[in-house]
Specification:
By secondary structure, the protein is of the alpha/beta class. The protein contains 8 helices and 7 strands. It starts with 6 loop residues before the first strand and ends in a 5-residue tail after the last helix.
């Protein structure tokens, strides 16, 4: 790994990795860190170029973030973990589970999408426009270049082939807000194509983990308890 990712680590027990969304950092999961660290070892990660994690020189793509996650687990000597990803973090988690299924105990996807077509048009259109504007000024402005990279994650990524979802056969929870920016049909499709997935809807928008944490945490906890491996 060319960089060392910043983390918030709290608690003891089975590892639970938390992956935030685009333009955020690990603090997004404030309510989840406090809640789940009572019974688990929670590691909330700042993605490359987000929060306190350096940008480094590697490509700024979802697939690079997947490699970063693999390297992170090796660094922390975590053989296998439960992974909860939100938005772009969910896309990282899903691709990671497809590529390294042996590393994922249980997969939790909150507001993930396979491609840009999964996002409601009224949300995606301003992103596409912003990306094009930032691209025009990226050669002369560091701020525009950074903005282009972040928006590029939502324009050019994650492009996960639907026929690859069968490789993520671990127990999975697909969870989304009832007014999410991801199309309901798209979320349902992901849950249907994962071999061992449950689907849960929480009242709220895309940011249910932050805005409706009690309901969100209860749904996640119920899934983790129900799908606990038999010892």
């Amino acid at each position: 790994m060319d960089i060392q990712l910043h983390i918030i680590e709290k608690g003891q027990g089975e590892p639970l990795l938390l992956l935030h969304g685009n333009g955020e950092d690990a603090s997004y999961f404030h309510h989840q860190i406090d809640y789940f660290s009572k019974t688990r070892r929670v590691l909330a990660i700042d993605t490359r170029g987000h929060g306190k994690s350096p940008r480094g020189r590697a490509p700024f793509t979802i697939r690079q973030f997947v490699q970063d996650l693999y390297d992170f687990m090796a660094w922390k000597e975590i053989e296998r973990a439960d992974i909860l990803g939100f938005s772009d973090g969910g896309n990282i988690a899903l691709l990671f589970a497809i590529q390294y299924p042996q590393k994922v105990r249980r997969l939790l996807l909150n507001g993930a999408n396979l491609n840009a077509r999964g996002v409601k048009w009224q949300i995606q259109l301003p992103i596409e426009i912003g990306y094009r504007i930032a691209s025009l000024f990226a050669g002369i402005s560091t701020e525009a270049r950074t903005h282009r990279e972040l928006l590029g994650l939502m324009v050019n990524d994650p492009n996960i082939p639907e026929d690859q979802l069968c490789k993520a056969a671990m127990p999975a929870l697909v969870i989304a807000g009832t007014r999410d920016m991801i199309k309901e049909s798209h979320t349902r499709r992901i849950a249907e194509r994962l071999p061992n997935a449950q689907l849960a809807w929480i009242p709220g928008d895309h940011f249910i983990a932050a805005k409706n944490p009690d309901a969100f945490n209860q749904a996640v906890e119920s899934f983790l308890q129900e799908m606990a491996p038999v010892s």
